[in-house]
Design brief:
about 375 residues, mainly alpha, two-stranded antiparallel sheet, 4 strands
C-alpha cells in the first residue's frame, strides 16, 4: 500500500524541478532551471519587443506564450523560497500516515484520498501533455503549405522566440524545434505538478477533516466519552489544531502563487480567447484552433483549480462545527461540554486560501476572472 497521499508522478516532478527540499540533487536541478528558464525567457521577451508592431493576433499569441512560461517560473521560485513550509507540510502528511491504523475509518479515508489524488494526477498530467502536443502540432501545421514560410528562418517556432542568429538550414530548424518541444513538455509537466501538489494538500486536509468529523459524531454516548483506541477529547482538540495549522501552511505556501495566477491568467485567457475568435474566418483557422483551444481550456482549468481548492477547503471546514453540534455534547460532563463548545466557536471561522492575502479564493472569484477576460476580449475586438 502507498503510504503517502502524493502520487509517484507528482513526487518525481517535485524532484526534477528542485522543489523537494534538502536533497543533494536539489541545488543542481535549481541551477539547471535558472539557467534554462532565464535563457529562454530572454529570447521570448526579445520576440515580443521585435514583433510589437506586427500582426496583432501573432503578437497576442506571443504574449500568451511568454506569460504562461513566466508564470511557471514565478511559481517554482516561490516554492523554492518557501521550502521550509513545503518541508513542514510533507512531515505533517507523513505523521498522519504513520498512525493511519488508529481505526478502520481513518485507514479507509486516507487510502481513498491517496487513490483520488493519484487518479487526478494522471488526468491533469495527461491533459497538459495533450495540450502541449496539440499546440506544437498546430504550430507545425501552420508552417505547412505556406509559401511565406518555405525558408527555415521564416517559419514559426513552437516557443515564440527570436534568436540572435538566423535558422538557415533544415537541420538547425529541426534541432531547435525538437529542443523547444522537449522544453515545452517539461513546462507543461511543471505546471501540472505545482497545481497537483495543491490538489493533494487540499484532498489530504479534507480527509483529515472527515476523520475529525467522524470522531466528533461518534465520540459521545450519554454522559460517557467512550472513543476507542485512545481517541479522547484531547486527541480531538489536537487533531483540530493540526488541521488548522496545516491549512495555514497551505495558505502561506500558495497565497502569492494564487495572486500571480489570477492576475496573469486573466490576461492569458483574454489573449487566447481573442486569438480563437479572430481566427474563425481565417484561412489557417484549423491550425490556430488546434494549438489554441486546449491551451485555452488548460489555462481556465488552472484558475478553476485554485478557486475550487479555496471553495472546497472553506466548505469542508464548516463540517467540523456541524459534526460537533450534531453530537450529543450536551449529555457530556461540564468540562468536556465546554471544550466541544470551543470547537464549535473556532470552526465558525472557516479555513480559506487567499490570493495575496487580499481576496478569498472561491468559485465566485473564478467567475469574476472569466467575466473580466470576456470583457477584455470584447474591448480588443472593438479596437481591432
Amino acid at each position: 500500500m502507498q503510504m503517502t497521499t502524493l502520487s509517484h508522478g507528482v513526487t518525481f516532478g517535485l524532484h526534477i524541478f528542485g522543489i523537494w527540499p534538502f536533497l543533494p540533487s536539489t541545488i543542481l536541478f535549481r541551477f539547471y532551471w535558472i539557467v534554462v528558464y532565464s535563457t529562454i525567457q530572454i529570447f521570448q521577451y526579445r520576440y515580443l519587443i521585435m514583433n510589437i508592431h506586427t500582426d496583432f493576433s501573432q503578437f497576442m499569441d506571443g504574449v500568451s506564450n511568454v506569460l504562461a512560461c513566466s508564470l511557471l517560473y514565478i511559481k517554482v521560485v516561490i516554492l523554492w523560497v518557501n521550502q521550509r513550509i513545503f518541508f513542514d507540510l510533507l512531515q505533517m502528511m507523513t505523521a498522519d500516515w504513520q498512525d493511519y491504523n488508529s481505526n478502520h475509518y481513518s485507514s479507509r479515508v486516507l487510502t481513498n484520498t491517496a487513490n483520488l489524488a493519484r487518479r487526478t494526477s494522471m488526468v491533469i498530467i495527461s491533459l497538459q501533455v495533450t495540450a502541449v502536443t496539440l499546440y506544437s502540432v498546430g504550430v507545425l501545421a501552420a508552417n505547412v503549405n505556406n509559401p511565406e514560410k518555405m525558408e527555415p528562418y521564416a517559419r514559426e517556432l513552437i516557443l515564440k522566440t527570436t534568436f540572435p542568429f538566423n535558422i538557415s538550414t533544415e537541420v538547425s530548424y529541426v534541432i531547435i524545434q525538437s529542443v523547444e518541444f522537449y522544453h515545452l513538455l517539461l513546462l507543461g509537466y511543471g505546471m501540472a505538478i505545482v497545481n497537483l501538489f495543491l490538489i493533494t494538500l487540499i484532498l489530504h486536509v479534507g480527509g483529515q477533516i472527515d476523520i475529525l468529523c467522524e470522531w466528533l459524531t461518534n465520540a459521545f454516548s450519554a454522559n460517557v466519552i467512550h472513543l476507542s483506541k485512545g481517541i479522547t477529547i484531547r486527541s480531538i482538540i489536537t487533531k483540530h489544531q493540526q488541521i488548522i495549522l496545516f491549512a495555514k501552511k497551505i495558505e502561506n505556501l500558495y497565497t502569492y502563487i494564487a495572486l500571480v495566477i489570477l492576475l496573469s491568467e486573466t490576461l492569458i485567457i483574454c489573449c487566447l480567447g481573442f486569438i480563437i475568435v479572430t481566427s474563425l474566418g481565417a484561412p489557417d483557422a484549423a491550425a490556430i484552433l488546434i494549438k489554441s483551444v486546449l491551451f485555452y481550456l488548460s489555462m481556465n482549468l488552472e484558475a478553476f483549480i485554485y478557486c475550487f481548492a479555496g471553495e472546497y477547503l472553506s466548505e469542508k471546514s464548516k463540517m467540523i462545527g456541524h459534526a460537533a453540534y450534531d453530537s450529543v455534547w450536551y449529555d457530556c460532563p461540564t468540562t468536556e461540554k465546554r471544550i466541544i463548545l470551543f470547537v464549535m466557536l473556532r470552526s465558525q471561522k472557516t479555513l480559506t486560501i487567499t490570493s495575496g492575502r487580499i481576496m478569498v479564493l472561491s468559485l465566485e472569484r473564478f467567475t469574476s476572472v472569466i467575466k473580466a477576460s470576456a470583457s477584455y476580449i470584447s474591448v480588443l475586438l472593438a479596437m481591432y
